[in-house]
Amino acid sequence: MKKSIPLLFSLALVVLAFSSCRREPDTLTYSSRPSAFLNAFYDRHKPRTESFTFQAAAGHTYTTQKGTVVVVPPNAFVDQSGQPYNHVVTVSITDLYKKSEMLFADMHTVTTGGMLLESAGEFNIKAVNSIQVPLELAPGAFIRIEQPLQPQQQIEPGMMAFIAEEDSAGGNGWALADTTSAAPLVSAQANYIFTLYSFSTPLGEGTWCNSDQPAFGSMPTTTLTLHGTDDHTEFATDVFLIFSGTNSMIHVYADYAATGSIFPYNYAPQGQSCTLVAIGAKDDQLYASFVPVTIGTQPTNVNFTLAPISENDFVTQLDALN
Fold this sequence. Notes:
about 325 residues; mainly beta; Immunoglobulin-like; six-stranded antiparallel β-sheet; about 15% helix
C-alpha cells in the first residue's frame, strides 16, 4: 500500500498539475457514443440518484443507502433571481465510492492536468423547487456532506475538496475547490466532511464534488500506450485503467489522429499495477478485455483484444477490482 503524503506537498502537486498541463484532454463525461446498446448497458449499471423533499425553511438531514449524510440547514436556498426560497424543495444526490461505480458514471479520478487522484468519495448534488426549477444556495449558506469511511479505509490527512469544472480548453476535470465554492475538507474520526457553499452552473446538471488526494505523490510518470487489436470505431470502444491498492481509475481516450486503435495516457505512475478494462459492443453483443498491467520506468505499450462477454460476467470481473 502507498504511504500518505503531507497536505502542503499534495497541494503543491495539484497546483503544479493545473498550471502546467491544462490542455490534457481528460473529461468527466462520455463523448458521443454511436452505440445505443452500450448507452443502455451503462445506464443499467450507473449509480442511482436518491432524492428527499422537505420545507426549505425548516432544513433537513438525510442519509443515503451508502451512508452519506446530507445536512441542509434552514433557509439555505434562493431562487435564480436571488430571492429567498422557503417552500418545498427536493434535493437529489448521487454518491460514488467504488471504482466500479466511478467507471459506470464515467467520473474518473484525474485532474484536468492529468494527475491521478485517490478518491474518498464523489457525489453530485442539486436542489429544485416544486416545479423542478433549479435553486441556488443562499449567500452565507452551505450544505454539509459527510462521507463515511469505506471498508479497509483509514483517514488520510492529505484529502482535499475538489469540484468538477470546465477549463479554458473546453474540457472538464477535477479542480481544487476555492474558498467561494467549498470549505477545506475536514477529516473526522470516521468520515470526511465536505462543506459546499455554492452550486456549479448549469444548475440543472448538479454539482460534482470529490474528496481526493494525489494518488502516488511525487512518483515519476511515463507514457502508457494501449493498443486495441480491434477497430475502436467499429466497437465504440471505451478504455479504463483501474489501479490496485488505491481508489483510483481513469478513462483513457482514443487518439483519433493516430493510425489504429491507440489509447495513450501520458501520466502513468511508474511501477504501479493496474488493470486495463476495455468495453465495446457489436451487433448487440457486449465485448470486453481485462488485462493486468505493470507500468514500467520507460514508455510502456500494452495490447488488448475484445472478446464476447455476458453482462453478468463483466460486472463480476469489474467488481473484483474494487
